[in-house]
């Protein structure tokens, strides 16, 4: 499978994320899709902060925790990760392929 990894934004694969969640790691999963998209299912424990609301909701994100950004395909979450990095968040990763590639549990 081809993985496109833009410079400066590390990616995490769905399999890597599933393994880390199974190990009980304390990850902050931020789903940047719109609420109507999230209603169809999200990664368990993910918080929904739509991309358009990210600037006004930065205070909700713990800069000490690793943040995994998720969207439908990986594009909006890439922009969200760039935005977080530009605002001083150093522990950000983009879920490769987004929810389209996620075959793990959903809630």
In oligomeric terms, what are we looking at?
single chain
The amount of beta strand, in percent, is 5-15%
Low-confidence stretches: 1-6
Element string (H = helix, E = strand): EHEHEEHEH
Let me know the largest β-sheet.
Answer: 5 strands, parallel
**What would you report as the Rg, rounded to the nearest angstrom?**
12 Å
Keywords:
4 helices, 27% helix, alpha/beta, 107 residues, single chain, 5-stranded parallel beta sheet
Report on this structure.
The chain is of the alpha/beta class and 107 residues long. The chain has 4 helices and 5 strands; from the N terminus they run E-H-E-H-E-E-H-E-H. A 5-stranded parallel β-sheet has the order 1-5-4-2-3.
How would you summarize the topology of this molecule?
Elements: E1 11-12, H1 14-22, E2 28-31, H2 35-38, E3 47-48, E4 67-70, H3 75-86, E5 92-95, H4 98-101
Parallel strand pairs: 1-5, 2-3, 2-4, 4-5
């Amino acid at each position: 499978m081809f993985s496109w990894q833009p410079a400066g934004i590390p990616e995490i694969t769905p399999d890597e994320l599933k393994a880390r969640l199974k190990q009980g790691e304390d990850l902050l999963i931020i789903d940047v899709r719109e609420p109507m998209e999230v209603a169809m299912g999200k990664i368990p424990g993910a918080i929904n902060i739509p991309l358009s609301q990210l600037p006004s909701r930065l205070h909700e994100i713990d800069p000490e925790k690793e943040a995994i950004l998720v969207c439908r395909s990986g594009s909006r979450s890439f922009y969200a990760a760039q935005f977080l990095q530009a605002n001083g968040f150093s522990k950000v990763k983009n879920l490769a392929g987004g929810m389209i590639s996620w075959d793990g549990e959903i809630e």
